[in-house]
Amino acid sequence: MTSQKNQLPPPAHSLESSPNRLISLDALRGFTIAAMILVNFPGDGNQVYFQLQHTKWNGLSFTDLIAPVFLFIIGVSITLAYAKRLERGDPKGEMYQKIVVRSLKIFAVGMFLNLLPTFDFSDIRWTGTLQRIALVFLICAFLFLNTNWKQQAWIGAITLLLYWLSLTQIPTPGVGKVMLEPGKNLVAWFDTQFLPGRMWQGTWDPESILSTFPSAVSGITGMLAGRLMISSLTRNEKVNYLMTAGLFTAALGFLWNLTFPANENLWTSSFVLITSGFAALLLGAVYFLVDILGNTKGTKPGIIFGANAITVFVLADVLSILFYYLKFGSHSLNEHGVTALTGLGFDPRLASMLYALFFVCVNFIPAYLLYRKKIFIKL
């Protein structure tokens, strides 16, 4: 990790000739991280509203939208950051080196989090949220430096089509027929053959090897949106195109979902289109409200979280040792908290959510201190 102190973080964009940052993207990144913490740390994992947990298999919940939206934001940020460097003629060799090093750092931190709190290397899991972010960033950044937006669009479309054909036409080895059930599909079989270590669900893992490819398309759609944002179109035209593309993409994903169900665990092609369409609509709406109309009230918490997004994500896992694992008496803090709230008459699921919101606020404290001191930690 490196940090920059006593200066503003490097702009993620340069829209028109304005020196102002794209506040909407900064805020959206931060609120997405806050949402990740909210759903990852319920007060009671057995008492969670449907929208605050991942769907068991096919379907979509609020929680299922968070990871693809963040990958979409990564794609947008790649375009905003590297387009200027390409225009300046910066050596690609140096950019390649920094991309690889950054990806390795993010992957390594993800492995560190997987080892918390026991550091049991005999039961290690090699996949996870940060590992996927690292791989998607690596793939998308290399693509951006070596292809134009049309080629990126074709690569994304072909990847989704090939993934769909593979999962729906190739029989699952050992079964003899095509299956798309938990642990009984081509993706799960591939992991049992080639993925080392422990898998999240025992016989399969939601951050699988094969699903990394369509998840990279989530990043590619963000890069395409980023290309629109740095174009010579007027701000209102950008919003119109972004919202139109988002609506069309989400609608196409919904239609595909009728035959190839949206599924985050498999990161199906329909899931990519629906969530990328949603992300484009969300970015367009926030861009219009914040950057065009100037309604910046309420964006500050998102900007603070977003200034050190991955750092805050890591801190949440570290702080969870104190707030979720250590025993104070016979119970942990989250157990004490949920018990106290339910004792006051709160529904158990509401009590669980309120404790999760409390934990989000706990993580806001170090995020705010870092932001106030102008310390921006970059992996």
UniProtKB/TrEMBL annotation:
<feature type="transmembrane region" description="Helical">
    <location>
        <begin position="61"/>
        <end position="83"/>
    </location>
</feature>
<keyword id="KW-0472">Membrane</keyword>
<feature type="domain" description="Heparan-alpha-glucosaminide N-acetyltransferase catalytic">
    <location>
        <begin position="21"/>
        <end position="240"/>
    </location>
</feature>
<feature type="transmembrane region" description="Helical">
    <location>
        <begin position="353"/>
        <end position="371"/>
    </location>
</feature>
<feature type="transmembrane region" description="Helical">
    <location>
        <begin position="241"/>
        <end position="260"/>
    </location>
</feature>
<feature type="transmembrane region" description="Helical">
    <location>
        <begin position="209"/>
        <end position="229"/>
    </location>
</feature>
<feature type="transmembrane region" description="Helical">
    <location>
        <begin position="266"/>
        <end position="290"/>
    </location>
</feature>
<feature type="transmembrane region" description="Helical">
    <location>
        <begin position="129"/>
        <end position="146"/>
    </location>
</feature>
<feature type="transmembrane region" description="Helical">
    <location>
        <begin position="302"/>
        <end position="326"/>
    </location>
</feature>
<feature type="transmembrane region" description="Helical">
    <location>
        <begin position="153"/>
        <end position="170"/>
    </location>
</feature>
<feature type="transmembrane region" description="Helical">
    <location>
        <begin position="99"/>
        <end position="117"/>
    </location>
</feature>
<keyword id="KW-1133">Transmembrane helix</keyword>
<keyword id="KW-0812">Transmembrane</keyword>
<dbReference type="Pfam" id="PF07786">
    <property type="entry name" value="HGSNAT_cat"/>
</dbReference>
<dbReference type="InterPro" id="IPR012429">
    <property type="entry name" value="HGSNAT_cat"/>
</dbReference>
<protein>
    <submittedName>
        <fullName>DUF1624 domain-containing protein</fullName>
    </submittedName>
</protein>
